[in-house]
Amino acid sequence: MSKQTKYVLDEEQIPKFWYNIQADLPVPLPPVLHPGTMQPVGPDDLSPLFPMSLIQQEVSTEREIEIPEPVRDVFRLWRPAPLYRAHGLEKALDTPAKIFYKYEGVSPAGSHKPNSAIPQAFYNKEAGVKRLTTETGAGQWGTSLAFAGSLYGLDVEIFQVRVSYDQKPYRRAVMETYGARCIASPSNETEYGRKVLAENPNHTGSLGIAISEAVEIAAQRDDTKYALGSVLNHVLLHQTIIGQEAMLQMEMADAYPDVVLSCTGGGSNFAGIAFPFMGQALRGGPKPRIVAVEPTACPSLTRGKYAYDFGDTGHMTPITKMHTLGSTFTPPGFHAGGLRYHGMAPLVSHVKELGLMEAVAYGQRECFEAGVLFARHEGIVPAPESNHAIKGAIEEALRCKREGKAETILFCLSGHGHFDMAAYTRYFEGDLQNEVYAEEAMAEAMAHLPEVPENV
């Protein structure tokens, strides 16, 4: 095994195709349903929100979908992203395991999110769209779409979850620097936002509420579409360039992962790193363990129900089968804002049900402890979301130490934490607690799942 630390691909090795795991699944994904008819949705049902090119990607079962050359040209700004061998962390843990991480924080927005923001903006621009609306939690997706909108001359309006809007003013400033308009959600700018505020003027917001507001605005104008940063099939598809690059880089390192991990909120960076490896296993290749790491305060995979549910709190979206805590569930305001979503991507939920992956959950204090250890030995200050992946990787490495196994661990370091230093300050001051969701609130939300006919 080489002592090399960094594995870098040439720009010409940026993938030319996105990988679609739906082509290799042993059981097809359950259909998306129209909430009014409870029948599978068609392209016309989605056209008020998305351009046809993205709708086609959403429903495609083709294994490879070509990445437009203009999109690959933009990707050259930061892709291929580097793969690192975590020699420092390995030494600190005194583990026989080999730890690698794919670092997505090198993008202009500081995370993996531009991998989908750029193609979404590109396809909308091609379709003649003038304005995009979206939601954001931590601000990574909002920043990425703002950046993409600036490249393609699109107006971007971002509904940011109120608690993150207040926690992360500098992330908001970056969105505004790129030319986007950032609005705290719930807001007075939409009918649904006003309804929420009338019931609770101090509502901290949720991704489900912010999605409802963004969808409401997009549906009102013909020149406006909606863009989503996770959960949907086409978003997960766009992120698979992470895993495809990682495969080539692991070959450079003369290694192959025994374990692949990532943090998981909506599922985008998890699918990005995991699906290419999972697909190779489904086609008869090596079968690494695939592990999703989520927060204990919003544990959709480990505590949620696999059922049909709305993707938003206002019930304006189609309903999908996913692991859910209930669309009206509002998670507590822990700092990993990108992981505060009530549901999991239908594709991630489906492969979990098929037994192709595992899921674990950790509290935010232990995740920040892992992130600080990582920073002190690898030099990168991780985003709070990414700390969950690091915690999962450390636990796997310590297991290898106990068992005397020299396994290879690969995780996705989805972004840096340069705009999250207030959270680190709270951690060092001993003020950062493990947030706990209210069991009764989750039970209440779960009691209101939509009723779907048994034959669906």
From TrEMBL:
The keyword Transmembrane does not apply. It holds the Pfam family PALP. GO terms for molecular function: L-serine hydro-lyase (adding indole, L-tryptophan-forming) activity; pyridoxal phosphate binding; tryptophan synthase activity. The keyword Ribonucleoprotein does not apply. It catalyses: (1S,2R)-1-C-(indol-3-yl)glycerol 3-phosphate + L-serine = D-glyceraldehyde 3-phosphate + L-tryptophan + H2O. InterPro entries: Trp_synth_b-like (IPR006316), Trp_synth_b_CS (IPR006653), Trp_synth_beta/beta-like (IPR023026), TrpB-like_PALP (IPR001926), TrpB-like_PALP_sf (IPR036052). It is an enzyme of class 4 (lyase). Keywords: Amino-acid biosynthesis, Aromatic amino acid biosynthesis, Lyase, Pyridoxal phosphate, Tryptophan biosynthesis. Pathway: Amino-acid biosynthesis; L-tryptophan biosynthesis; L-tryptophan from chorismate: step 5/5. Tetramer of two alpha and two beta chains. This is Tryptophan synthase beta chain. It comes from Brachymonas denitrificans DSM 15123.
